Amino acid sequence: MAKRIITISREFGSGGRFIGEEIAKKLGIAYYDKNIINQIAEESGLSPDYIQESAELSPKKGILAYALAGRDITGKSVEDMVYEVQRKVILELAEKEPCVIIGRNADFILKDRDDVLNVFIHGNMPEKTKRICQLYNVSEQDAVKMMTDTDKRRMTNYNFYTDQRWGKASDYTLCLNSSQLGYDKCEEIIMECVK
Known about the structure:
The protein is of the alpha/beta class. It is 55% helix and 12% strand.
């Protein structure tokens, strides 16, 4: 079956978001990233700012704090509720139209579909650091801290809500090093896989 949906998980600074956006433009399909946040906020009744902070990233304290976050009598936390709404929104988007979905555990949420290409984009530290310094106008030290914090929080969220490990090659269709291949080549390889 042809691949209609591309999910892109990525290390912070690897250019995964940019690559996904370019692929969506070139293929003429929908692109979902931060625009999913408003749908999740609307359905959950929580603010978009809160969703942005918790839908893909875990609290900064790590997996134990994440697992023990404030829970109601059913054992569900606000993060659990957000994840359930996020899951519902992603499943609906996948049904609706061909698309590129960035992050948000979409690869795991859609793992039972045959028409999904799951991609993980990673990169080498020097290139990622340089990219983050330029994009966010920060020092190298701040860039490294941003990368470490963001990737740790993504990994904690992913590992908590899925039975997979974030970034583990066997859980994705493709793993691409954007530092070695370059963005254009990554786009080319991904688009070749959906034909």
